[in-house]
Predict the structure.
Amino acid sequence: MRPSNTAAAIAARRTQTKEKLDRVATAIGQLRRDCGRLTVRAIAERAGVSSTFLYENPDARALVQNAVTDSRSRRAAAGHAEHERIEATWRERALNAEAELTRTQKEVLAQRQRIGELMGQIRDFDQMVPGESVQHLISENTTFKHRVQQLTQEHRKLQERLEGARSNLRFSDKRIAALEAELLEVRPPSPGGAEVQQLR
């Protein structure tokens, strides 16, 4: 082959390689915009090149490696953000339930104290006031007892809700932790053939 023909062939191969690299970079950008999974096969199909080219060409291999690493980092960051959002939601629910529980407990205590005062008044006035006044106190005492029963039931329901919120929060933490561990499971690239194996 003549020197001029050899130079022309080399130039043509370089041009072809550059076009392929440009298509690879474009394909990576499109997959990112489409939220597609960045794999060697997906990039090769989108760019219209062979998987062998992505493995053997150093520039193409570097493009794919950087894209895959960046994609994993983005997924890990998204998983962490979702974990923070879920945890904040359940934390707020738990705090609201605890606040309502505290309020109910205070009201139950106040009602019980009031019942005690009324019972004392009934005993004191039993022989000192007309029967009608005693009946009024008894009726008021009964009303307070019913109210205490209602508050006790609300207290029990709030405790159940609080336990449910805490249980959901624990389950959410375990699930998100498992997803983060799965997303962050990235082995460091090894030299030579091991690096190619990781891309697969």
